[in-house]
Amino acid sequence: MPVLDVTPQDGVLRYDEGIHIGYRAWLRTDAEPAFPFGSGTGYTTWELGTATAAGSADGFVVTVPVANTGGRAGKQVVQVYAERGQSAVERPVRWLVGFAVVRAGAGETVEAGIPVTARSLSYWADGWQLEPGEYTLRVGTSVVDLPQSVAVRVD
Q1: Which terminus of the chain, N or C, has fewer Cβ atoms within 10 Å?
Q2: pTM
Q3: Per-residue pLDDT of the chain (155 residues; tens, 9 = 90+)
Q4: Contacts of 9 (CB under 8 A, 6+ apart)
C-alpha cells in the first residue's frame, strides 16, 4: 500500500510498514496495482521452460530456458522470487531474490542463469541470519506472472 502519512511529528517521520512496503504490501492485502512490480511491455512474446536450481546454502543458480515466441527480436527480464511458508520470522508473501536480462531473436530460445545468494534469503536479527529449511523459488516476468517454480533446501 502506498505510504499516506509523510508528515514528520516533532521532527520524526514514523515508519510503521516494516518489511511490507511496495509490492510486498500489495501481495499481503490481495490488492491489485495497475502494473505489478517487474512487469513491462515489449514488442514480442515470451515463454519460460522448466526451471532448475543447483547450489548449496552459500547460494543457488536458477536456470530456465526462455523462448522468444514472437516475430521479432526482444529483451526480457527473468525474475526469481522466494517464498517461505512456514517461517519462524515475519517474512513477505514473496520477495525478489534475483533477476537476469536475456535477449533473443524471433523464434530463438536462450538460457537464463539467475544467481540467488544466501544473503537474499536471509533476514536481519543483529546480523544477517539464514533460516534453515525449504524455500520455493518462483520464476517469471513479474511478481504475479510466475509460471515456474523450484524448491531448494538450506541446512
Answers
A1: C
A2: 0.88
A3: 556 667 888 988 877 778 887 888 888 887 888 888 888 888 999 999 999 999 988 999 999 999 999 999 999 999 999 999 899 999 999 999 999 999 999 999 999 999 999 999 999 999 999 999 999 999 999 999 999 999 999 98
A4: none
CA 154 to chain centroid, in Å, comes to 18
Within 8 A by CB and 6+ apart from 125, the residues are 89
Residue 26 three-state SS: helix
Closest CA to 125 of 5, 11, 15, 19: 19
How far is the C-alpha of 51 from the C-alpha of 39, rounded, in Å?
Answer: 19
Helix (H) or strand (E) holding 140: strand 133-140
Rounded CA separation 69/27 (Å)? 29
CB 34 within 8 A of CB 84: no
